[in-house]
Amino acid sequence: DPVDRPLLSVRGLTVARRGLPAARLVDGVSFDLRRGEALGLAGESGCGKTTTALALLGLLPDGLVRAGGEMHLDTEHGPRPLHTLSGRGMRAVRWRRISMAFQGAMNALDPVMRVGDQIREAIRLHRPELDRTAADTRVGTLFEQVRLDPRRARAYPHEFSGGQRQRLMIALALACDPDLIIGDEPTTALDVITQRQILDLLDELRRELGLSVLLITHDLSVLAETCDRIAVMYAGRIVETGSVDEVYRDPRHPYTRRLLASFPAVGGPRELPPPIPGSPPDPAAPEPGCAFAPRCDRADDVCRTSPPAARTAPDGTRTARCHLLPWPATSTPEPAR
Ligand code: SF4
């Protein structure tokens, strides 16, 4: 049934360093994203969350290769495999179906070109069927959608504040009417009030346009504000998934617990509690057992020698990858280590 099909389905996605198949930056990642849903991908820097997004977009940097897994995007013609697409096929998917916002809002804009012209050119590049007037009309609509005065299309990037530039990046990401927007660290550089406004805007757009959103951030307070579900990554693997409400109220994986404890609540004291001691493992030298064992205060000999399977709660709404959980192992096969 097309209504029940996820917009995006990822199974066993694995990304390794070229020539070093054991060095997996993303290791058997599986998740679904429904239409209109916002999923947050959380974890410390280097956990593989951005690499996962880049693999989805076919934009892995030199030196990294997709070493396994499947990704399907639902379309009006049914689910379409992304993992078999050529570079050209992938370019057609980017912008028109999946687009990415936020990475370095300042650098993505040409400082000597009016912002409206930049967005119009992006539209015409990806939608050649639109003439200049139609593309200009679209620019006006996009400015209104991101709550910027359309007359400001004639201004240059430096004439916009940090928050307004984020709005421009969202406008650019929306330019070709995609089904899915991937946002990477959307608000890191912004002050608290501007951060709030950008998250509210994203939320409103998701409802108005029926967008799906994949939000990538190390900041759990950002995800709590914006997302329906969360997937926590550690050392290239998803270690816990569930609704934001449930995971925040009752985290089941020791890493999620530590991560939640290391973030102040939105509106709470701005002082950061101490970070989690230790550092994530080197992907080139993976742990034989649980990747979190060296930093986990509950690790025992089993944890240090055998990797935990992903386990699913009996009601099927949550998963976690930890030996301590009494839940049955998830049926998706584990890729061999
Ligand atoms: Fe900690 Fe063991 Fe669970 Fe890993 S499997 S998170 S080491 S308790």
Automatic annotation (TrEMBL):
Bilayer topology: Peripheral membrane protein
GO molecular function, one term: ATP binding
Gene Ontology cellular component list: plasma membrane
Main location group: membrane
Cited Gene3D superfamilies: P-loop containing nucleotide triphosphate hydrolases (3.40.50.300)
Keyword vocabulary terms for this entry: ATP-binding, Cell membrane, Membrane, Nucleotide-binding, Transport
Intracellular or extracellular location(s): Cell membrane
Keyword Cell division among record annotations: no
Gene Ontology biological process: peptide transport
Bias kind Pro residues: ranges: 271-286
Domain of life the protein comes from: Bacteria
One Pfam family matching this protein: oligo_HPY
SUPFAM superfamilies per UniProt: P-loop containing nucleoside triphosphate hydrolases
Region annotation Disordered: where it falls in the sequence: 266-291, 303-337
Residues annotated as domain ABC transporter: 10-260
PROSITE patterns xrefs: ABC_TRANSPORTER_1, ABC_TRANSPORTER_2
Protein family: Belongs to the ABC transporter superfamily.
Protein name (Swiss-Prot/TrEMBL): Dipeptide/oligopeptide/nickel ABC transporter ATP-binding protein
